[in-house]
Amino acid sequence: MCIPPKDAHDAEFTGQAHLRSRSSHHQGGTMPRVAGRRHREMRDEEKARWSQENRPCCICGMATIDWDAPANEPDAFELEHPLPVKTHPHLEFEPSNRKPSHHRCNRAKGAGPSMPTIGTTSETW
Asked: Is the pTM of this model over 0.90?
C-alpha cells in the first residue's frame, strides 16, 4: 500500500514523489506508479505540440481530440502508452511509447496493447 506524504509541500521539500495505487495494473495487488513532475511536464509539452499538429488518436485514428476539454471527458486528450506501463515500466518516459489518444479510447483499451487502426479509407463516409 502506498502512503502519500502529508501534503504537497512535504513531497516537494523531501523530493519524494506522490505515489498512487494502480490496482488494475498489477495482478494480485497494487503497483505504485510515480505521478510526478517529470510525467506532467512531458505530457504537457507533448500535448501542446500534438494539439498544434492536430494529431489523431493513436487508437481510433480520428483527429477529433478535444485538446481543451477537462480530464475524463470522452473526447479529451489522454496520454497513451502503446506498450503498456504494466508490462514495460522502463518505457514510461520513452518518447516513442507516448502517443495522443481520446480519454474514451484509452479507457476502453485498458492496459492491453494498442490495436492498429483500419487506416485511410478510399472515400469519405
From this structure: no
